[in-house]
Design goal:
seven-stranded mixed beta sheet; globular; two-stranded parallel ribbon; 367 residues; single chain; binds S-adenosylmethionine
Length: 367
Amino acid sequence: MILSKQISLFEQPAEQVSVKDFSQPSSKKFPKTRYQGSKYKLLPWLKENLERIDFATVLDAFGGTGSVSFLFKQMGKTVYYNDILQFNFLTGKALIENNIETLNTNDISLLVSKDANFSYLNFIESTFPDIYYTNEENQWLDILLQNISKLKNEYKQALAFWALFQSCIIKRPYNLFHRKNLYVRTSEVKRSFGNKKTWDTPFEQHFFKFIKEANQAILDNKKRNKAYNQDAQQLNLSPDLVYIDPPYIPAKGTLTFYRDFYHFLEGMTDYHNWPKYIDFESKHKKLFSISSPWENKENITFAFKELLEKYKDSILAISYRIDGIPSIEEIKKALSYLNKKVTVQEIDYKYVLSTKSDSKEVLIIAE
Ligand SMILES: C[S@@+](CC[C@H](N)C(=O)[O-])C[C@H]1O[C@@H](n2cnc3c(N)ncnc32)[C@H](O)[C@@H]1O
């Protein structure tokens, strides 16, 4: 009874953008993100810098949460979203490629109800005890994941995955899966960080909230937007503009290993094959690591140069920081060899919450 009352809130049609609206970016808001390197907070600044450039098609080569792809969608562009991780690709499907589908009350009730005629596996419950979530929560995840395939539409499935990923992230200390640390949440100690109330809020409650957020973000910009799941260097696309926001390597400080930090979400995308990819020796049952030049101080400069060369016929917009490897000077030099005119925009202080950081955001535009 309570369930049907809650889920009736989700019946929201996708916003239609008419041709006359294209000069006015849609007022739709991208859902708040909790992802390393997300540009969500910088969207107004990016928009200010990108809207003076003339382009119709755009590749977001390292798409992550899809926040910047969404900005492009709002700007009326044809958007190609890409990310090497499958769980991010599903986000691209749900919020970028998908122009019209939303989850309705029937879909949601199918997702959260235990089907008495179905024999459910309990892989998460049996593999991850005391690691990320409680037993009861793990059981909920096992059921929900196996119910997703009952939705027949690929965009609806992707929307369900997106809401599930957000629910998993918000319930994790640090919003990551890099340690076996359920105890941080459950032990009776005084905490100086995080939000125990959010961690302890039942999955279902978070899930309903995120479905509502996703439904409200579905935007039809009348373009054939597309999501890809490849290494950015391997794509076969020639868009007018390529937006490049790769994993960032600070000259000093720690790196972000995306697949390692979010392995639990990546595993969930392939429930039945998940055990094949798990390193069972690891305390936190992560996936086997895959080395990437983008997460390696020695190899990133070469990877960067190769990528710039590959997309040399497009306008390039690179999100970067002043203390990265390679340095901004090295990037500018590589771009000048490609006969590009380069400008470097430093972020305006009004968009930065803390002025203490010595790692300022920049946007390098090469035309
Ligand atoms: C800094 S984040 C991008 C953040 C994104 N702009 C946003 O606003 O959410 C970098 C992304 O690059 C992805 N990635 C890493 N190596 C990649 C590769 N070789 N090809 C494509 N994507 C890659 C990671 O999975 C991660 O999501």
